[in-house]
Every structure is written in structure tokens, then in C-alpha cells.
Amino acid sequence: MVRHLAEVSKLVVKIGIVGGTGYTGVELIRLLLAHPEVEVAVVTSRGDAGVPVAEMFPNLRGFTDLCFSAPDVEALSKCDLVFFATPHGVALEMVPQLLAKGTRVVDLGADFRIRDAELWSRWYGLPHTAPEALAEAVYGLPEMNRTAIKSARLVANPGCYPTAVQLGFLPLLSKGLVDTQRLIADAKSGVSGAGRQGKVANLLCEVSESFKAYGASGHRHLPEIKQGLSLAAGAPVGLTFVPHLVPMIRGIEATLYAELKQDSDDLQALFESFYENEPFVDVMPFGSLPETRSVRGSNLCRISLHRQPESNVVIVLSVIDNLVKGAAGQAVQNMNIMLGLPETAGLNLIAALP
Ligand SMILES: NC(=O)C1=CN([C@@H]2O[C@H](COP(=O)(O)OP(=O)(O)OC[C@H]3O[C@@H](n4cnc5c(N)ncnc54)[C@H](OP(=O)(O)O)[C@@H]3O)[C@@H](O)[C@H]2O)C=CC1
Ligand SMILES: CC(=O)N[C@@H](CCC(=O)OP(=O)(O)O)C(=O)O
Q1: What phi, psi does 26 have (nearest 5°)?
Q2: Which residue among 15, 86, 262, 291 is least packed, with the fewest CB closer than 10 Å?
Q3: Domain extents for the chain?
Q4: Which of 312, 319, 270 is nearest to 170 (CA)?
Q5: Any ligand 1 atom below 6 A from CB of 163
Q6: Whole-model pTM above 0.90?
Q7: Kind and range of the H or E element at 165?
Q8: Main site of residence (predicted)?
Q9: Which atom of ligand 2 is nearest to the CA of 109?
């Protein structure tokens, strides 16, 4: 028997997922099986075609009888919308073919996030072979780009660090309150951020009881974050971004620093009004300490502000679940906007605390 988590509406939207065996893929399946307006029709795997999805992922047992199938453009093009939960370069090849057949796409990878193809190639080490698709892609941070997402055929879902960092800095930059050349983002991620593929560096014995920075000389999310913040500021920004790996499974915490151009008492009011109508950004009381466990499994970004005595620096703390607001949840949010569905459909999730 297959349990149906939601009363599915009559006008069902058919969904495909390329890369269903990865962490963001299985998170997409979890969210979409509980979504009232969509049906997951195709989930791909190259190596596990024919295997029941619920056999691989124990949380899905009893909720779907789908089997993985090999990635095939013809089968995927029968879907109304396809998510790519694949490494860089995969969407690049398949997306132009799907767009030509009228299928809309949300790419969770980075192939269409950076407007400048040459800059993308430098950071990702591949030639950008889909310039036309890149030209029409819309960067899928709804809090910044909702109107453009509504009519997009191709949405580039932001990276996990870029989501946490941009949401924290956006109000300050869009109001021109801080020195745009001296922004600092000190971010930490759980290990699921590195994906499900077996790598020695991600083994329990390698990451537990330990804490380290990485990408300190330049991480590929740097150009993506700078692109978004520069748009918000109206001029190129200077940013120092250093990610860290922490021994937990899910979650990102970003501690952000910006120098105020002049003292301001109403930063809290600014953040509250900036995000007043945003269903997935929670501005906490001034001086709060947001925890990653408070957003674990939910699509929320929780933000708080701090000031220290005799300092012109504003400190912003921002937390998300890297697999939800940092990936699959934000992708479903974008899908809802693209399809004209309620933006929160399938995303009314409260974090699982312990
Ligand atoms: N993990 C995270 O927190 C976040 C990840 N992202 C991005 O989302 C994407 C997916 O990440 P994640 O789920 O962690 O990755 P995983 O490594 O966990 O999964 C990758 C998936 O892609 C499939 N795949 C790999 N190569 C190909 C190919 N050539 N053709 C078709 N399918 C392929 C694999 O399936 P199979 O081998 O079975 O075919 C697998 O299901 C990446 O671009 C990542 O950078 C974005 C935000 C956050
Ligand atoms: C902990 C960890 O390893 N995190 C990943 C970020 C995952 C992500 O969001 O990256 P994409 O831009 O590829 O989508 C990293 O630093 O490479």
C-alpha cells in the first residue's frame, strides 16, 4: 500500500528529478511526496535504475512505489517541471533540450547561477556550453527575485552558503547603510553539504571531534555571493568569505560583519520591515542567538542582529538547513512561484528539534 500524505489536486503537475540518489534529491522526494499539487513521475539514477526508491531510502518506505530510471531526456520532457539535483555540468548538457521541449527546470546545481559564463568557467573548470539557457536563467532567491521567477522557464537555485549569506546582508546593502568594500562572512556547514558520494574526507572518523576551515583562499560560492550582493548594493562589493566544516549532519550558520557608514538605531526595525512579508525569513529579537537545530528540516532562515560596545560593526547571524532553504526547500519554493501555486505549499514544516 502507498500512503498519500496530501490530498492531491485534480490538476496534478508532473515532476521529474535528475539525481534522485543524492542528499538534495532524496530531500526533494520527501518534500514533493507531501505536496498537494504535484506528482513525482520520474526519479533518475544512472547506477540504480530499476531499484525501488523506497528500498534505497528507508524514510520513504510506504510512501512511493516509484523505481529509479536512467536519465532520459525523452521521458523527462513528459514532465511539466524537472529538478536537477546533480553535480556541476550535468544540467548544462540536458537543460537546453528540455527547454526546447517546453519543460521547465529548477537547477539545484551551479550551472546557471553566474551571469558571466567566463567567470563561471574559471571557478568551475568547465566551458559553459549553454549560453542561451544561461541568458534566460533567473537566479532563484525569492526574497530578491520573486517577480522574475514567476515567469521563468529556468531557475538557478542558489547555493547553500549564498542563501544564508545573502539573506543576512541584503537589507543592509539595499538601504546603503554599510561600507560595501569590507564585508565579511564567516560560515559553517554540516557535512551533508558535501553530498552523498563517498569521500574519505567526509567519513565519521575524519570529521567528528574536529573543526576546520576550507576554501579560505577562494571558494566557488564567492563569485555567486558577490554577484547577488553587488546587485543589491548597486555597485561591486568587496567580500571576504571563509567556509568551515562542522561535525554535524545538517545546517549552516553564517556570522556576518559589516561596518556601518553612520550610527543607526533602527537596524532591527529595518530588518523586520524588509522581511515582513517573507514566509521563510524569521527576524528574531535583537541580540538573539539563532541555532541550526531551530531550522533543521524546515525551509526557514532565522536571522538576528548584534552590536558590540564602542564599535561601528553590525553583526548578523543567519541560520538555515543547507538541504532545505539551502537546496530542496528553496527549489520547491521556486517551483511554487513558477507554477502560480501558493508559495508555502508543501513547505509548512516545523524543525525537528533534538
Ligand atoms: N548538499 C547540499 O547541501 C547542497 C547541494 N547543492 C548542489 O546540488 C547538487 C546535488 O547535490 P547533492 O545532492 O549534495 O549531491 P550528491 O552527490 O548527494 O548526489 C548527486 C546526484 O547526481 C547524480 N548524478 C551524478 N552525476 C550524474 C550525471 N552525469 N548524470 C545524471 N545524474 C548524475 C547522482 O546519481 P547517480 O550516480 O545515481 O546517477 C546523485 O543522485 C550539486 O550541484 C550540489 O552542489 C546545492 C545546495 C546545497
Ligand atoms: C560542506 C560542503 O562541502 N559544502 C559544499 C557546498 C555545497 C553547495 O551548496 O554547493 P553548490 O554550489 O555546489 O551547490 C562545498 O563547500 O563545496
Answers
A1: -70, -30
A2: 262
A3: 13-157+325-339, 161-322
A4: 270
A5: no
A6: yes
A7: helix 160-174
A8: cytoplasm
A9: 14
Q: What is the pLDDT of residue 11?
A: 62
Q: Would you call 251 helix, strand, or coil by DSSP? A: coil
Tens digit of each residue's pLDDT (9 = 90 or more) over 7-17? 655 568 999 99
Cα(271) to ligand 1 centroid in Å equals 34
- Which long-range contacts (C-beta less than 8 Å, at least 24 apart) are formed by 222-227? 222/123, 223/114, 223/119, 223/120, 223/123, 224/110, 224/113, 224/114, 224/158, 224/159, 224/162, 225/161, 225/162, 225/165, 225/166, 225/185, 227/113, 227/114, 227/115, 227/139
Q: How far is CA 207 from the centre of its chain?
A: 23
Q: Residue 311 and residue 251: Cα distance in Å, rounded?
A: 29
Residue entry with cell 529579537 = 285
Q: What size, in residues, is the chain?
A: 354
Report, at the CATH architecture level, how domain 161-322 is classified: 2-Layer Sandwich (3.30)
CATH annotation of 13-157+325-339? 3.40.50.720
CA of 346 to the centre of ligand 1 (A): 22
Q: Which amino acid is at 342?
A: P
| Residues lower than pLDDT 50 in the chain | none
Out of 67, 79, 160, 205, pick the active-site residue: 160
